[in-house]
Design goal:
This protein has 492 residues and is α/β, with parallel strands linked by helices. The chain folds into 3 domains: 137 residues, NAD(P)-binding Rossmann-like Domain (Rossmann fold, 3-Layer(aba) Sandwich), CATH 3.40.50; 140 residues, Rossmann fold; 184 residues, Succinyl-CoA synthetase domains (Rossmann fold), CATH 3.40.50.261. The chain contains 17 helices and 17 strands.
Length: 492
């Protein structure tokens, strides 16, 4: 734990889930007790289900009320209806809990002034008692190191990405989508209406959290403009911050107000705040995912716009890829004649292209030499490459090549080989390597398991992207991001 006042929220000694369903839930939303059991929270702290209608749930004692649970209870998850919340707030005060997460909805986001008044009153009572609130209308906390999770299937292995999201569904999508690409999280918070704790509180915490190296956010609206901007500046000064803003159009703004009661505000003002603070802003969910991968891998080290593309698999693919790279303001420069002549020693002329993009596959024994030649050629700042299943492993990496009568390498072994090769080329040449991993038929033809390669590459510090277009877009955004951060501390 740190000295930050919010730290106890992320490190509770015991959790009470109030309003646990007496029967197993078929859906994932609201099954907090199941998620905590799955993440094995009960192995490190007290986990207390509360429901006055049953005595036991899934083999554990169920308590009739929060006041009947053992002491201490640091964190409470509220699944009770909105009408029952005031009584639960009184119990939290009496129990001297540290924090409460309101999954319960039906407050200010409804537009009903009476329910908004109830929300303000309960938050005032909690604050006066020194209790912090997350929500209402949200999914709450995912903290792998503390065994906290708000959905089933989340990894228990901690990472270094900190996520704050006004939307619970989007938080789940971001986590699930990036987990498939190898990313792991330090902490994630879905904070909904933000009646008490808001984006600026979590940005302030993330800035000083030693476990969080990259900060990502999905935000629909900001209530405290100055507090948000100041916290964003503090955080973005010392860590890469990537933000996806919801409600940037008139229709989206109306949807955001209905969703969390947020006033989306001017997108031009929000953009200007992000640029002044030094944060990157994603336009779409895909961009948010890609920028998080970039900020937490060697993609963040790109320095120029010259791209070499290797291993695309087909002349037509190379043509469209070159178009995609050019559209993002990057270039696909011709390789020096000396480099072309050197590569011709490895590759026959017929059916191949050794200029750039490079649509050619040399014999295995020449692969490393060719990749180093391309990565160090004049005008090349970044190497885009598809992992090749037949790559020779670098020194010290043991993999078994199939012999007559033997089975081919397993997908995990192929993934390790490909990731190790890309990492070795990057280390040897100093040129950032950006992986392109198309799913479907091309991956199957090359004997690649997309998830296995993505995970192995991420572990090796290499960012993998599902298309050349998305990789090019990400590299261009990182270069622009670095340009408008000029004068701020180096964080890449």
């Amino acid at each position: 734990m740190t000295d930050h006042p919010l730290d106890p929220i992320f490190n509770p000694r015991a959790v009470a889930v109030v309003g646990v369903r007496s029967k197993p839930s078929a859906g994932m939303m609201g099954s907090f007790y199941d998620s905590l059991l799955e993440s094995d929270f009960q192995a490190i702290g007290g986990l207390y289900p509360v429901n006055p209608k049953v005595d036991e749930i899934k083999g554990y004692r169920c308590y009739p009320s929060l006041l009947d649970t053992p002491d201490p209870v640091d964190h409470v998850i509220s699944q009770v209806p909105a009408a029952a919340v005031p009584e639960l707030v009184d119990q939290c005060v009496a129990k001297k809990v540290r924090s409460i997460h309101f999954f319960t909805a039906g407050f200010s986001e409804t537009g009903d002034e009476e329910m908004a008044t109830v929300e303000r009153a309960m938050i005032e009572k909690l604050r006066n008692a020194g209790i912090r609130a997350i929500g209402p209308n949200c999914m709450g906390l995912y903290v792998p190191s503390s065994r906290l999770a708000f959905m089933s299937g989340f990894p228990t292995k901690p990472g270094n990405v900190f996520l704050l999201s006004q939307s619970g569904a989007n938080a789940g999508e971001i986590i699930s989508g990036l987990v498939g690409r190898g990313v792991r999280f330090s902490k994630a918070i879905s904070y909904g209406n933000g009646a008490d704790l808001r984006a600026h509180d979590f940005l302030d915490y993330a800035a000083s959290d030693p476990d969080s190296h990259v900060v990502a956010a999905y935000i629909e609206g900001v209530r405290d403009g100055r507090a948000f901007f100041d916290a964003l500046k503090r955080c973005a000064r010392v860590k890469p911050v990537v933000i996806l803003k919801g409600g940037r159009t008139q229709s989206g703004s109306h949807a955001a107000h209905s969703h969390t009661g947020s006033l989306a505000g001017s997108i031009e003002v929000f953009d200007a705040a992000c640029r002044q603070a030094g944060a990157a802003r994603a336009e779409t969910m895909d961009e948010l995912h890609d920028l998080i991968v970039a900020a937490s891998t060697s993609t963040r080290r790109v320095t120029g716009r010259g791209v070499a593309l290797f291993g695309g698999g087909g002349g037509g693919f190379a043509v469209l890829s070159a178009d995609a790279i050019d559209r993002e303001g990057l270039t696909v420069p011709k390789l020096p004649q000396s480099a072309v002549e050197e590569m011709r020693k490895y590759i026959p002329v017929a059916g191949s292209s050794v200029n750039n993009p490079i649509d050619a596959f040399p014999p295995e024994e020449y692969m490393e030499d060719m990749l180093r030649l391309v990565a160090t050629a004049e005008g090349i700042d970044t190497l885009f490459m598809s992992p090749i299943s037949g790559m020779r492993p670098p020194p010290g990496v043991k993999v078994s090549d199939p012999k007559d009568g033997e089975s081919p390498p397993a997908p995990a072994e192929i993934a390790t080989r490909a990731a190790s090769q890309m990492s070795a080329i990057e280390a040897d040449t100093g040129t950032p390597v950006v992986g392109i991993l198309r799913s479907g038929r091309m991956a199957r033809m090359m004997g690649l398991d997309v998830d296995a390669v993505s995970h192995a590459a991420y572990e090796a510090g290499i960012g993998m992207y599902p298309s050349v277009a998305r990789a090019a877009r990400t590299v261009a955004q990182v270069l622009d991001w670095k340009a408008y951060r000029e004068g701020l501390p180096e964080i890449f």
